[in-house]
Amino acid sequence: MAGIFGSATSAAATSATATQGSIANDVQLNQGPEDGIQDLAFSPVSGHLSVASWDNKVYIYEVQSNGTNEGKASFDLKAPALSTCWSKGTLHLISMLCARKQ
Predict the structure, then answer these.
(1) Which domain of life is it from (predicted)?
(2) In whole angstroms, what is the distance from residue 60 CA to residue 40 CA?
(3) Where are the domains of the chain?
């Protein structure tokens, strides 16, 4: 099955020397994070992607099967977002942040 993230056959299976897949079909996020991405997760029940970033935010994008995407929300956590995941079977989002001493 082919989609915006390639086919079901991995690049490693087709090339003995490849250590990573091709980036030729990668999709750039519209209005992406201002700092490095720490984690990302696709919703198991919808076309949503959550992105945890070092700019202290978690971003939510709606991603279409052709790769077009639109930012839907962002949450300021006041510290770097270290991880993000979706609750199984729902649209509930869970994120973890880095606690800082004041």
Answers:
(1) Eukaryota
(2) 10
(3) 27-97
